Amino acid sequence: MALFLSTFTNKIDKKGRVSVPVTFRTALAGQPFLGIVAFRSYKSPSIEACGIDRMTQLSQSVDRLDLFSETQDDFASTIFADSHQLPFDSEGRIMLPQELLAHAQIESHAAFVGRGATFQIWSPEIFQKHQSEARKRIHEKKATLKLTDTSSPEEGAR
Description:
six-stranded antiparallel beta sheet; two-stranded antiparallel ribbon; Chemotaxis protein chec; 22% strand; alpha+beta
C-alpha cells in the first residue's frame, strides 16, 4: 500500500495544473489507475486524496455497513459520489476540478500533506494554521501513540 509522507507546496499553473510530488507519484506506482482519487473533505477545508487501492478499501468498509442504512448512504454520497479520478499527465501533473479548489480555498498554490495511507491537498496558509492548532491539541492532551503490533492485525494505534 502507498505511504505518503511530508508536505510539499506546488504552484498551480495558468491552465490549472499542479504537479503531484514525485514521492507521492512513486508511492502510487503499480496501481491499476495512474493518478489520484480526490474528494472534498467532510472534516476540513481540504481535499482528501489517495490511490485507487485505498478507494477500494474504503468501498469495502462502506459495504460492511448495513445495506440501505442512512450511515451507509451518507458515506457513499460523501465519498464516492464526490470522488474524481484525476490522471497524471506526462509530467506528473493533475487538473483539480473547480469545486474541489473552491472547497479547499486553493488559489495559486497547493500544499500536498502526507497522512500515511492517504494525503490531503490544502491552501498552504490554511494548512499552516490547521497544523499549528493540531500540534497545540496534541501537546495539551499529552497524547501518545501505541505502535501497531504487525503480528496481530487487530491491534491498532490508540
